[in-house]
Amino acid sequence: MPSVTHDDAPLLADLMPWSVAPPRLGRGWPAAPDAASLTARWDALVRAEGPEREALFEPTRSRTPYTAVGRLPGRSGGTARLIRESGPCPEPVRVLAAPFDEQWLIPDHRLIDAARPELWRVRDAEQVFVVEQAAVPGSPGPVLLASSLLPLHPAHGPRAGRVRPLYRRPGGAEPNLAPGLTAHLAARLGAAPDPLDVLAWIVSAARPGADGIKVPLTADPDMWRAGVAAGHRALWLMRRNGERPKLPGGRRPYVRAPLPPRPPQPLYDRAEETLLVGDGRISPVPPAAWDFHVGGVRVIEAWFARRTEGAAPGTLEAVRPTGWPQTWTSELLELITVLALLAEDGAGDGAEDGTEARDEAGDGRDPITAAGLRAAGVLPVPDSARRPASVLDHQEEGPGGQFALL
Known about the structure:
- The protein is built from 12 helices and 19 strands.
- It is α+β, with helices and mostly antiparallel strands and about 400 residues long.
- A 4-stranded mixed sheet has the order 1-3-2-6, covered by helices on one side. Strands 13-16-15-14 form a 4-stranded antiparallel sheet, with no helix packed on it.
- The radius of gyration is 23 Å and the shape is globular.
């Protein structure tokens, strides 16, 4: 049987046809690494009046304090114009602010230039958001990331790609997979994979292509099981659900010397496997964790920069912790562990090297090609599969407390 070439593999855009651009804030202050700063920023905003409030808000063409918008689906934020707002801060929610960077967000539609309500409607405990990452020539890194948290367009760094939710409806209903794909896989593999298994394979096998992200598929049951197992482990590490990950052999990064209240950008001692943060010391930090890149950016350096970079005095972004919170250190230690384990499993190898599942899916062992999916009627997908499902089971509040016309 001929090998599957790069061009024979189906596109991710066909296998998971519904996609949405990530939410774009338009201003930095509604998101922060700690929730307390967000409450303080909101309080400072609503204490200000008139032109001062407008300046603090940082208006854009999409949003000003006078913009009328509806409530975010599933949230309890206000719908009166923000210039008149005097109530308490909406309870911050956890989001994925950048690759491997979990932060907090004020979930208020009035603060967000492009909130993507269709993503908020399907955001729940069952959902998995898949985010495309740019492939940078000569730089390693995964082309797909997955999170249980709503991913945002990063305020700085490389542009995020499309967001592809695993489910089109809340409660894990209606998988965002090409209609007929799981039935075709079941016929070829001898057993029906569930949607999370298909996603696990996609995460383990995805590779960049000239016309988009490609996903080599196989009908070899042994290869499928190996790829799905690798993908589930990657999903577990990226989503950080349940038991905390540990490095093999009982190794665990520790704080050998406390981090200073205002840490500088870190340095790395490769020989000692030590992260140097001013007078602070963290080790062991495996080289693979330090070298882990996404979109051409070193993850650990970018994570630090978003917590240490300066903000203009008098802005809401300047409202932040006066020192380095202990919770950030705990998050850093877990981040180091996650990156080291993902790199060990091959998730950071990048386009040139790839994972075992990705490489072997093209070696001729019962491949499933894009042409084969077209012959089976799985492709092309209907236009309806590329549009969001109608998930409304109640009226959503529009501007000024009126019900939205949908």
